[in-house]
Write a structure and sequence with these properties.
Length: 355
C-alpha cells in the first residue's frame, strides 16, 4: 500500500484531494496541516475518520517534526499544497506568505531530499515531490493569449511572488540534487468547502445575509475558473503519470469577468433562494476601489495535460457554479462553524492553540 504525504490537506483544494484519494485509491494518506484559519478538518467529510487517513498537525516550517513523519510513515511521495493563498491578505501582511510559502517549501524540500536519499534505487525512481502552484506566478495577460508551461514568470503581488519563489526552489532541487519533482499551475478554484474570504463563497454568503456584494473596480478583471473536484482529479493524474521534472498547467476553460461571476451567483440565488421582498439579489452589488496591483486577466492553455495525460474538466462554469451554490445552501452548519469561530474553539480544545 502506497503512503502519500499531502501538505495542506485540511485546506480547500487539499481536502478535495484527500476526499478523492480516499474514495478512489487504496493509498494511505498522511494529511499534514498546521490548521491555520483556512484549515478545517470538517472539510474532509467522511474521509476524516477513514482508516487510511492519518492527520498530523504539523507546520511545514518545523524540520524535526517533518523528519519524524518521514521516518515513521516512509511515503512514496509528497503532494505539497500547504500555502497562504489569499492575495488581499498578502498585501496587508506579506510576512506569513514569505514564511510559509518560501521558507516552508524549502524546509519540506530538504526533509524530502534527505529521506529520498535513504531509499533504494527502485523507490528513489518511483518517488515524486508534486508541488501545487498557481497561474498568478505568470503575471497579467492582455485581452488575448494564454498562459502555458513556458510562460515567463512575472508575479505582481506578495502572494504570487512567494509562490513563484517556491516554484523556483522546487525546480532547483530537481536540477541540482535530482529530486523527482512535478509542478502544476492552476487557475482560480471554486466549489464546496471554500473559505468565505474568496470571491464566490463571499458573494453567496453576503447575498444570503443581505449584505453588500463588493466588486473591485468596474468588475472587468477576468479569471479562468476551475471546479475544485476537476482540479483534484488532475492532481491525482499528474502525480501518478506525470513526467518527473515537468510542469503542467491546469485550467477550467471558463473565462469570466468578476462582474459576470457575481451576476451568475445572483441569478442562481434568485431561482434557488428568492428574496422575500421579490427583489433580485443583484441589487446588493457594490463597486469598491480596486485592489492594488490587480492583474487584469488570467487564462490557461491546458492542452498539454489534455494531450499527454488525457485530463479535461468535467464541469462547465454553469454546472460547477450551481453545484457550489447548492452546497452552501445545504451546508449552513459548516458555514456557521467557520463564521462564528466555533470551529476554532474546537481545534484549540482538541489540538491546542497554535499561532
Amino acid at each position: 500500500m502506497h503512503t502519500i504525504f499531502i501538505t495542506g490537506g485540511a485546506g480547500f483544494i487539499g481536502s478535495a484531494l484527500v476526499r478523492l484519494l480516499v474514495q478512489e485509491t487504496d493509498w494511505r494518506i498522511v494529511n499534514i496541516d498546521k490548521l491555520t484559519y483556512a484549515g478545517n478538518l470538517e472539510s474532509l467529510a467522511e474521509a476524516r475518520t477513514h482508516p487510511r487517513h492519518c492527520f498530523a498537525r504539523v507546520d511545514i516550517c518545523d524540520r524535526p517534526a517533518l523528519e519524524r513523519l518521514f521516518t515513521e510513515f516512509r511515503p512514496s511521495g509528497v503532494i505539497h499544497l500547504a500555502a497562504e493563498t489569499h492575495v488581499d491578505r498578502s498585501i496587508l501582511g506579506p510576512a506569513e506568505f514569505i514564511k510559509t510559502n518560501i521558507e516552508g517549501t524549502y524546509v519540506l524540500l530538504e526533509a524530502a531530499l534527505d529521506y529520498w536519499r535513504t531509499l533504494d534505487d527502485s523507490a528513489r525512481r518511483d518517488f515524486r515531490f508534486h508541488h501545487v502552484s498557481t497561474d498568478e506566478v505568470f503575471g497579467s495577460l492582455g485581452p488575448q493569449g494564454f498562459f502555458t508551461e513556458t510562460t515567463a514568470y512575472d508575479p505582481r503581488s506578495p502572494y504570487s511572488a512567494s509562490k513563484a519563489a517556491s516554484d523556483h526552489l522546487v525546480r532547483a532541487w530537481h536540477h541540482t540534487y535530482g529530486l523527482p519533482i512535478l509542478i502544476t499551475n492552476c487557475s482560480n478554484n471554486y466549489g464546496p468547502y471554500q473559505f468565505p474570504e474568496k470571491l464566490i463563497p463571499l458573494m453567496i454568503l453576503n447575498a444570503l445575509a443581505d449584505k453588500p456584494l463588493p466588486i473591485y473596480g468596474r468588475g472587468d478583471n477576468v479569471r479562468d475558473w476551475l471546479y475544485v473536484e476537476d482540479h483534484a482529479r488532475a492532481l491525482k493524474l499528474v502525480f501518478e503519470r506525470g513526467q518527473p521534472g515537468a510542469t503542467y498547467c491546469i485550467g477550467g476553460h471558463n473565462e469570466k469577468t468578476n462582474l459576470e461571476v457575481v451576476d451568475a451567483i445572483c441569478a442562481l440565488l434568485d431561482r434557488l433562494r428568492p428574496r422575500a421582498d421579490g427583489r433580485s439579489h443583484a441589487h446588493l452589488k457594490t463597486f469598491v476601489a480596486d485592489r492594488p496591483g490587480h492583474d487584469k486577466r488570467y487564462a490557461i492553455d491546458a492542452s498539454k495535460i489534455r494531450r499527454e495525460l488525457g485530463w479535461q474538466p468535467l464541469e462547465t462554469f454553469a454546472t460547477g457554479l450551481e453545484k457550489t451554490v447548492r452546497w452552501y445552501l445545504d451546508n449552513a452548519q459548516w458555514v456557521e462553524h467557520v463564521q462564528t469561530g466555533e470551529y476554532r474553539q474546537w481545534i484549540e480544545k482538541n489540538y491546542g492553540s497554535r499561532s
